[in-house]
Amino acid sequence: xxxxxxxxxxxxxxxxxxxxxxxxxxxxxxxxxxxxxxxxxxxxxxxxxxxxxxxxxxxxxxxxxxxxxxxxxxxxxxxxxxxxxxxxxxxxxxxxxxxxxxxxxxxxxxxxxxxxxxxxxxxxxxxxxxxxxxxxxxxxxxxxxxxxxxxxxxxxxxxxxxxxxxxxxxxxxxxxxxxxxxxxxxxxxxxxxxxxxxxxxxxxxxxxxxxxxxxxxxxxxxxxxxxxxxxxxxxxxxxxxxxxxxxxxxxxxxxxxxxxxxxxxxxxxxxxxxxxxxxxxxxxxxxxxxxxxxxxxxxxxxxxxxxxxxxxxxxxxx
Length: 318
Known about the structure:
The protein is of the alpha+beta class. The chain folds into 3 domains: 3-43 and 272-315, no CATH class; 61-182 and 244-270, no CATH class; 192-239, no CATH class. The chain contains 7 helices and 8 strands; from the N terminus they run αββββαββαβααβαα. It has helices at residues 3-24, 113-126, 156-164, 181-205, 211-243, 255-258, 269-315; strands at 46-54, 61-66, 77-78, 100-109, 130-139, 142-152, 169-179, 244-252. The protein has an 8-stranded mixed β-sheet. A hairpin with a 2-residue loop joins β5 (130-139) and β6 (142-152). α4 (181-205) packs antiparallel against α5 (211-243). The protein starts with a helix and ends with a helix.
């Protein structure tokens, strides 16, 4: 094969490659026979090989992991107590006699996620806290953990300080108190009223003699017993709300985990080098794929050009 024919073959291969890519647009990959999703079909990256470690002795398990949407960058906010709950409560009680529902949430960057979660688990256990959920996963090259904990309300401020101790950076935090004095007063007063009514009916039952009257009063007592049971459940629920505070923690070893698409997120030199090498690798793969594509189409054009050359040579043969 002479050089002229080789140049023509490679040229046709390149032209064909460009034409195919242009014709098929974004749905065509440089690799033969493959198709990549169009832009409106792309989804957030996920890792099917994510390793999950249960904090309460659960064995490691594989799980699908997608970028969580529970942690958003937000300014620090400490909400003042909101008055009244559902039942108001008024201003009759001073602050020391009022009851509150307390919650807090934190997003923190820590040097070592495993160590941080282990330390926090030990601390919450030491103050008789209840760990409602705890998991530690990997997202790409980052590690992160979630914890949701109930702590005794008298340990709430201490727990919030403990969460912030030893962290590299606090990206978001929210500390809230909602006044539940009105709700607590209403349900406890209602329970006391029902119990007194039942006691009065039980005394009344001892003073009647007819079966009809006894049956009527006993029916009222049964109804009051049902209402008392329901009211006791309400009091128990409010007691749980005001005696146990909720603390939620999201921790990661990189700020980039919280802001994966924010170029202003601080990254260390290793992250920058890794990203640069990754981009160079993708560029080399694209160039190699383009060359392979050109060679493939050139091989397809070669027999066609050889046939054309043979026909032309026969026509011009004397």
